Amino acid sequence: MADKSRVAIVMRSMNEKPHVDRTLEALAMQTFSGYTLYNVDSGSTDGTLETIKQFNPKPENVVEIAPRDYVPGAVLNMIIGLTTEPIVVFLNADAVPLDGHWLSRLLGPILSGQADACMSRQVARDSARFIDKYDYERAYSLRTLEKSPEFFSAVACAFRRELWDEVKFYTDGYAEDVAWSKACQERGARFMLVVDSVVEHSHNYTISALYRKRYRHGIAYVKIHEAKPQVVRQSLLCAREIARDFLYAVRMLRIDTIPYNVLYRIVIHYAYYRGEQEGQRRNAIGERGEEA
Q1: What angle, 0 to 180 degrees and rounded to 10, lies between the N-to-C axes of helices 130-139 and 258-291?
Q2: Structural domain boundaries in the chain
C-alpha cells in the first residue's frame, strides 16, 4: 500500500499571483503528505516562479518553458514523463484547495479501488461574475456528470499512471482533458467527481478572451467527437440557456446581471460554432492531404 500511495503533484503556472501563494500554502497544510511536487512554469514575470521555487524543495522538479511553447496536452505529457509515481495529481497554480483534506479526499476513491481517475469540485471565487458562479455550480455536479460523463477538468484531478501509459493527452489543441477522459472511458476506465474535495478556481474573462477560449474548444470538439457544425442546434441551445439564466437571475433577485448574462451566453455559443466551422475546415484539409 505504501508504494501505491506515492503521488506526483503536477502544477502548471503562468503569472498566477496572488493565487499561487494561497495554493502552495494550502498544499503544504494537507493531511496527506506522501507526494512529490513537480512544477512547469510558462514564463511568469509577476513573481510566481520565485514563489514556486521557495515552496518546491527540489530545483530539478521545476521546469521553465517559453510562453510560445505552451500547448496544454504536450506540456502535460512532458511533465508526466519526468515523474515516476504511480498516481498523478494535477493542481493548477491558481486552484486553491479549500481545506486540509482536499488531497486525501481526492485520492480516496483511487486508493480504495473505486475509481481510476477523480476530479475535484470547483467553486468560483467571491470576485467572480454572477453568471460564472452559476456555471460553476451547474458544471461540477453529479447531475452534469450523468448527462456528460466525458466531462473532466485537469485543473484539479488525480488518476492512476497506467491510464496515461495507455492514452497520452491530445496535443493538437485545447480541451485535452475532455478528449483524454473520453478515450480512457471508452477503454473502460472509471471516472468520478469527488464533491467534498473542493478547490476555488475561476477567471473573469474579458469578452474577447471568452470568445477565444470557446472558439478553441469548438475546434477541439469537432475533432474529438467527429461532429459537424450545426447552426440550428447551437442557436436553440443558446436560446434555451438564455431563458434558463434569465429565470435564475430573477429567482436570485439579480436582474441587474441579465444584460451581461445574455451577452456572455451569445458570445460563448457564437464562438463555439465558429470554432466548429474552423475545426471542420481543418479536418477537410487533413483528409485531402491523406488522399493525396
Answers
A1: 60
A2: 7-200, 207-291
Grid-cell match 460553476, residue found: 136
Q: What is the pLDDT of residues 26-58, one digit of tens each?
A: 999 999 999 999 999 999 999 999 999 999 989
61: pLDDT confidence band, cut at 50, 70 and 90? very high
What does the DSSP assignment read for 149-181?
A: TT---SSEEEEEHHHHHHSPPP-SSS-HHHHHH
Is a pLDDT exceeding 80 seen at residue 286? no
Integer Cα distance of 21 and 39 in angstroms: 14
Full-model pTM: 0.91
Q: Measured between alpha carbons, how far is 206 from 134 in angstroms, rounded to an integer? A: 17
Kindly report the CATH number that applies to the domain delimited by 7-200.
3.90.550.10
Helix (H) or strand (E) holding 135: helix 130-139
